[in-house]
Every structure is written in structure tokens, then in C-alpha cells.
Write a structure and sequence with these properties.
TIM Barrel, eight-stranded parallel barrel, 9 strands, monooxygenase activity
Length: about 325
């Protein structure tokens, strides 16, 4: 039995738009992936808030969460995350209170403090330059709206108040790790684009204070995974995610590109190093390679759960990758 047998697998989705397609197609694929991983036994399916990015359609995150929840039956669906400084906490409490009321016991509220956008978009969102620094106060305000109402409370979240909506703090550095530990909340680390900060997982466990929410720390690690029938096939398919990050490095985010036989000649040395740094935690390979590297990741981080991020041009390849990963829990590739 693989050591992965005890580890829940989950999925982070950005409703990616592939080259030549549109947001409607992305939403259809998102639902197809959610239904597929639900059948495979994945635990949760989160959607990430981003804005003004050509290849990402998950900007109206709460709306898309409701759409996915409506087309699945038991999968936990949530935000990975909502960028809280972009919103009034009351609005988030009402949105997720509505979702929890419609789909009781299935909604997660993951919170981040990054803008999920560029400077011009931050201005369009009416987000100030110090908004991220206000994150702890915003979290506290949001938690207040989701708590049972108090006598004389002047502003209430209806629906929202008194509902048991799990709150997670997300981060790519130690800031949210420290805050999650202080508040006794679960923590999700963004290893899928910030592999150099794995120490945040250890710091969270070291500083954790038990709370009414959690008696012991619970940490999830995000990781890019491209699984295929062989290492060679996976490496080719993984060029789609390399091209994605290359466009990010160049400041020109593109829709997901088809895989290529080789990245040689498509990037210079500096760009290659920058992309490889962003994807330093990526796991790419056939079933045995993926099993070995996932086991090593869990051992290194002591993660309680693994959240998989996957960039594929072809939806069939993406679905197959999730099948392969799921099969590793019982020690045999599908």
C-alpha cells in the first residue's frame, strides 16, 4: 500500500482558457473536471480568483463555485482563494452564506491577500496600496459576520451568520502561515508557484495554537502535477505549463498553448531559469515517477492534504492525469 493512501487529493482550478477557445468552453471543461475527480474520490475542488488575465476565466469566483456545486453531488467546492482585500467582508459573508445555504456542508472559504491582478486592475477593483496589510483585520471582520449574531449587532450577513463555513488561509510566504497558526485555522501553501517557501509549512505547525476550529494543525500543499503514461509523454505535455509561465515572465499572459516537442529556441537562458524557478515543485512523469515524487513531497512537508494544479491543452489529457494520480493511492496505476 502506498504511503499516499492516507492523503486526500484535491484540485485547484482556474477555469483555464485554451488557445482558440473562449470562457464558455472553459466553464464546460471546469464542470467536466469537477465531475470526473468527484467520481475518482478527490476531496475538494477549489477555484482561484484572478482578474484581467487572458487565459483565466475564474474571476467571478463565487458565481463559478455555485455553478460547479450545482453540477456535482458530494465534492467540497470552494475558493482557493478569494482575495479578501479586493472585497468588503460583508459581501463575501453574504456570498458564501448563500452558497452554504444552497449546498450545505459542501462549501469551503479559502482566503488570500494578494491582488490576483496587475496594478491597473487593482485600481479598477478600488484596492488601495496597503490593502494587503489590512488582511488580518479583514479576516476578523469576516469571521464576525459568519459568527452567530450578537444582541444589538447593527450589521448582519443574511444569509451567512451562524453558518459553519470552513475558513482556510492561503499563502505563498510565511505571513498567512503565521496568521493561520495564531487563529487556529487550516493553512494551504501555494507550492504550485512559490516552491521556495516550503518552510512556511513547518512554521505553521510550530506556531499553531489550538482553537474551537482545529485542535491540531492541518496543512495542505498545492503542487503542479502532469501525469501521463510515460515520463516522455508527460514532459511533452508539461511544455504547456512551461509556456504559460514563460508568458507570465514576459508580462504577456496568453491562453494555454498546445504542447511542443522542445522548448529549445522558445526561451533564452534567463527565461528558462525563471520558469524553472516558478515550477520548482512541479511533478511531471509517468505513474512511477509521479508516485515517487508525491511521496517525497508529503514526507518533506508533512502535508495533511495535496491540492493538484494542472495545465493541459487537451482536456482528455488532463482527465487522464487525474486518473493516474488517483490510482496511486492504492499502489497501482490505472
Amino acid at each position: 500500500m502506498s504511503s499516499l493512501a492516507r492523503i486526500p487529493f484535491s484540485v485547484l482550478d482556474l477555469a483555464p482558457i485554451v488557445q482558440g477557445r473562449d470562457a464558455a468552453d472553459a466553464f464546460r471543461n471546469t464542470v467536466a473536471v469537477a465531475q470526473h475527480v468527484e467520481r475518482l474520490g478527490y476531496k475538494r475542488f477549489w477555484l482561484a480568483e484572478h482578474h484581467n488575465i487572458n487565459g483565466v476565466a475564474s474571476s467571478a469566483t463565487a458565481v463559478l463555485i455555485g455553478h460547479v456545486a450545482a453540477h456535482t453531488r458530494s465534492l467540497r467546492v470552494g475558493s482557493g482563494g478569494v482575495m479578501l482585500p479586493n472585497h468588503a467582508p460583508l459581501i463575501i459573508a453574504e456570498q458564501f452564506g448563500t452558497l452554504e445555504t444552497l449546498y450545505p456542508g459542501r462549501i469551503d472559504l479559502g482566503l488570500g491577500r494578494a491582488p490576483g491582478s496587475d496594478g491597473a486592475t487593482q485600481h479598477a477593483l478600488r484596492r488601495g496600496p496597503r490593502s494587503g496589510l489590512e488582511f488580518p483585520a479583514l479576516v476578523e471582520e469576516l469571521r464576525g459576520f459568519l459568527a452567530p449574531s450578537r444582541p444589538g449587532q447593527p450589521v448582519r450577513a443574511i444569509p451567512g451568520e451562524g453558518l459553519d463555513i470552513p475558513i482556510w488561509l492561503l499563502g505563498s510566504s510565511d505571513f498567512s502561515a503565521r496568521l493561520a497558526a495564531e487563529l487556529g485555522l487550516p493553512f494551504s501553501f501555494a507550492g504550485h508557484f512559490s516552491p521556495e517557501g516550503m518552510a512556511a509549512m513547518r512554521l505553521y505547525r510550530h506556531l499553531f495554537k489550538p482553537s474551537a476550529t482545529l485542535s491540531r494543525p492541518y496543512a495542505m500543499i498545492g503542487v503542479p502535477v502532469v501525469a501521463a503514461e510515460s515520463d516522455e509523454a508527460a514532459r511533452r505535455q508539461a511544455t504547456t505549463q512551461q509556456l504559460k509561465f514563460l508568458s507570465l515572465v514576459r508580462g504577456n499572459r496568453l491562453q494555454l498553448q498546445p504542447p511542443v516537442d522542445s522548448m529549445d529556441g522558445l526561451w533564452n537562458e534567463w527565461e528558462r531559469e525563471a520558469v524553472n524557478q516558478r515550477l520548482g515543485a512541479a511533478i511531471v512523469g509517468g505513474p512511477e515517477t509521479v508516485r515517487r515524487e508525491l511521496e517525497a513531497l508529503v514526507a518533506e512537508t508533512e502535508a495533511d492534504e495535496v491540492m493538484i494544479v494542472s495545465d493541459f491543452y487537451d482536456i482528455a489529457d488532463r482527465l487522464r492525469s487525474f486518473e493516474i494520480v488517483a490510482s496511486l493511492k492504492n499502489g497501482a496505476a490505472a
